[in-house]
Every structure is written in structure tokens, then in C-alpha cells.
Model the fold of this input.
Amino acid sequence: MEDYKVSAERDTLVYPLTDAGDAKLASDAEKGYLNLTVDNGAIIPKGTIPPLVKPDAPTGGGGGGGGGSVPAYNWKEQAENGTGTGDWYHGDAVGDGNVRGPYGNSSQYLEFYPKGVPITANNYKLEMRVQTNYDTGATGEVGKIRVIINSGSPIDIENVRGMGGKKSTYYLENLTLSAGDNNKIRFEGLFRDYAIDYIIVSRPASS
Done:
């Protein structure tokens, strides 16, 4: 028997962020009820009980290389599970009903560490769901969000509109991530406070 790490997309309505939800998630993963991504990028499809020996890593795929195929990647994480500053606030539901913040300057930050990134490539997409409490329609002011991928240069999202307490979604595309669990996505504030609901990191399948 060989120990190895796997990750799975977590539906917080089915697997709430509680001890009971954690236990159910682990149990269903062991029974083969979920699609699992091994820390080397291999995929254990739903309906397959995880083997005792760690599956081999995939070869080739997007960003160059030879044969083989790389499955689609989709990793979602709630803000309350991030690392950094900010309080998290209960909303009207588990998971997507909560937000964490505020982030209005460089000393206020939140970091995420995507799990099971299947391959080093430059076509990952970041989706971020944020809440703003100011009102652009009333004041004319807009905010900014700063995103830093690993040790790269900051990427500033301009013209973040104030939604008066409502949420909106922003995207960054063609991001470079490395295979494995060692990537970091950092959010900072620049101007006007915002709060984070969740993020999704994704990449299409490639051959």
C-alpha cells in the first residue's frame, strides 16, 4: 500500500464545511463516488475505487510535449478556507453564502493554493466571485483588485464596479501554473474595499 494525496471538487451543499461534511467527503472518495485528481496529475474517474498503488502521472498535453492526454481541471475554493487577513461573514447558505474581507490595501490579503494542478501550462483561467458594498452608480467611484500568481508580476483588475452589497464575477485568462500543489494565488486590495466569496481555477482538457 502506498500513501498519496488526491483532491476533488467540493460541492458545499453536499459536503458542508463541517467535520461531518469532511467525513462524508472522505468516505465518498474512498468508495469511488467522486472524480479524484492525484497530486501528480493522474485522474481517478468516478466509479473507480482509488488503487492501493499511486497511479502514474499523465504525459504530454497542453503547453508542449508528446503524446498522452490531460483531463479538464476545475478547482473551486471558498474564501473562508483561504489564508490571510479578513473576517468571514455568514450569508444565507453554506459556502457560497459566505464572504471574507475586507481587502482595500496591500496589507489586506488572501491566498489560495490550488490542489492537483495536472500539468504546467499557460492557459489556466481564474474566476473570482467578489462582493462590493460601495455603489458606483451613486458615487461614480470604482475599485481595483490586485492578483499575484506565484512570484509573478501583479495583475491589476481595474474598474471594479461597486454593487451596493451585491456580488459580481471577474475573470483572468492565460495564467501560468505549475503541476502539483505548489502554486499560490494572492489577492490584495488597491482602492475601495471588496470581499471574496470563492474562486475557481480551470483549464480545458488537452491531448
